[in-house]
Design a protein that fits this description.
Mean pLDDT: 74
Number of helices: 15
Order of helices and strands: HHHHHHHHHHHHHHH
Oligomer: single chain
Distance between the termini: 45 Å
Number of strands: 0
Length: 269
């Protein structure tokens, strides 16, 4: 959500200043109507969450009840859920509420994250949630969140004794995790793939061997003369996804344009 992104982009000094202002506002809000106090608690809890303040959860809980603006309640619920994740585990009821608010006001990345967290918490009953998380995130720009959803879906399928079905989402999760340079997620997915009976390939840092399966498919089509739009239509992805894959491909191959692709790829067949 936009407001969350603004909070996250604040520098350490700006966060401390925001916290101090919100704290002064809370002290002055004792005699204000409940809605005004809830707004100040929301600002204070959001600031405390960013500075690891010990009262963030308490303030956000109280704000969430008092806020009448559902968009702000959605932000408060999202920040509260993540802080409870760090502290322990949020309740199923809170996750359900955040899901309802995310469906109404959240961007695909937020909705996909909540579905993933709820589906993971529900264990064997959460497969449908995880499938929906993947579906919601497929058309978004939240590539890392999609990787996490695919990894969670694959892991859930494996735990449900469906290892063959688990392999494809896990392979895709590994590709995206590598593209996002998310090392901890890569390690987790590799372990899941091994548990599902697959030996993950060793990552190379450069050259054709460093290309993921998706990058290689895009590179082959581009080398054959396909435009970004043509490739996107053939692979059922967005032109932006094709652009990202080509950019990663150029970097790994040490080239600067698609005109160089046929020669480089021809050397490895």
């Amino acid at each position: 959500m936009v407001r969350e992104a603004i909070y996250q982009d604040l520098s350490a000094g700006e966060r401390e200043l925001h916290h101090e202002r919100a704290a002064r506002g809370l002290a002055a809000a004792g005699a204000e109507p409940e809605q005004g106090r809830a707004r100040v608690l929301f600002e204070l809890g959001s600031a405390e969450a960013l500075t690891s303040g010990p009262d963030a959860i308490e303030h956000l809980r109280e704000a969430r009840v008092g806020l009448e603006d559902e968009a702000s309640r959605a932000v408060a619920a999202s920040i509260l859920t993540r802080n409870l994740m760090i502290a322990g585990s949020p309740s199923a009821a809170l996750l359900e509420e955040e899901l309802e608010l995310a469906r109404a006001y959240g961007a695909p990345g937020t909705l996909g994250r909540v579905l993933r967290e709820l589906g993971t918490a529900e264990r064997e009953d959460g497969l449908a949630r995880l499938e929906e998380a993947v579906s919601v995130l497929e058309g978004s720009s939240a590539r890392l969140e999609l990787a996490k959803a695919l990894a969670a879906h694959g892991a859930a399928l494996r735990l449900a004794r469906r290892p063959k079905e688990a392999r494809e989402p896990l392979r895709r999760a590994l590709e995206l995790a590598e593209a996002c340079r998310a090392a901890p997620l890569q390690s987790h997915v590799r372990s899941e793939l091994q548990a599902a009976g697959v030996r993950p390939r060793t990552s190379a840092l450069s050259g054709v061997e460093a290309l993921t399966a998706s990058e290689r498919r895009v590179a082959d089509l581009a080398a054959g003369g396909g435009t970004n739009r043509d490739i996107a239509q053939e692979l059922f992805v967005t032109p932006k996804t094709v652009e990202v894959h080509l950019s990663n491909t150029y970097r790994k191959l040490g080239i600067s344009s698609r005109r160089q692709l046929p020669e480089v790829l021809a050397t490895v067949g």
